[in-house]
Amino acid sequence: CAEQAARMKKLQEQEKRQKVEFRKRMEQEVSQFIQATGEPRRRFQPMNKIERSILHDVAEVAGLTSFSFGDDEDSRYVMVFKKEFAPSDEELEAYRRGEEWDPARAEERRRLRELEAQQEEAELESGPAPPGPPNDYKDKYRHLIGSDAAKAAARTMEANKAYGCVPVANKRDTRSIEEAMNEIRAKKRLRQAEDE
Questions:
Q1: Distance (Å, rounded) from C-alpha 70 to C-alpha 46?
Q2: Where is the composition biased (Basic and acidic residues) (predicted)?
């Protein structure tokens, strides 16, 4: 039993050393990335959850933005971005789909969407809409609520000042947060002692 405990302790120390070495290596890579002027983003090799969390922490300390991408645990990787080149939502979506980000193609997509929206607008203005259910519930119930009922209600609405306030008499637990946390920690230690 003592031999097993010693083996476990040795394994834990080895893991801790590996994490420290990995962190140092990531800190070096991140500092190289920061100094590289023509590199707005860097993609790291796929790594496990612990390594990714270490890299996210290193990036945060360095003042960079980082995201993980990839579907399964074996292929998840981290991308680190310099703050001035922080990715747009469209760019993030492309990475999440597993595509390479192409700003020119994204601009083309955006232009196409604008064109489609303009065409739809022109169609709506050109003639009456085909019969069918209205798209918006407000249109459906306009004859009941009118067109400015919601705006009027929003103007007259006032916040309830007592909202969220519980009278002391109604509180069951009168301990301070510190007392409650100490009690939780004590129970946790007791449970750990029982498990061992």
A1: 9
A2: 93-116
Q: What is the pLDDT of residues 67-118, one digit of tens each?
A: 988 878 778 889 898 888 887 788 888 888 777 777 677 778 778 888 888 8
Going by the DSSP 8-state scheme, the letter that residue 45 receives in this structure is P
| Rounded Cα gap, residues 79 and 81, in angstroms | 7
Q: How far apart are CA 107 and CA 94, in angstroms?
A: 13
Angle ∠(110,115,116) on CA atoms, nearest 5: 95
Fold entry, domain 2-102: Ribosomal Protein S8; Chain: A, domain 1 (3.30.1370)
Sorted by where each begins, the domain ranges of the chain are 2-102
Residue 140: φ, ψ to 5°: -65, -40
Between CA 39 and CA 36 the distance in angstroms is: 6
Query: For the whole prediction, is pTM greater than 0.85?
Result: no
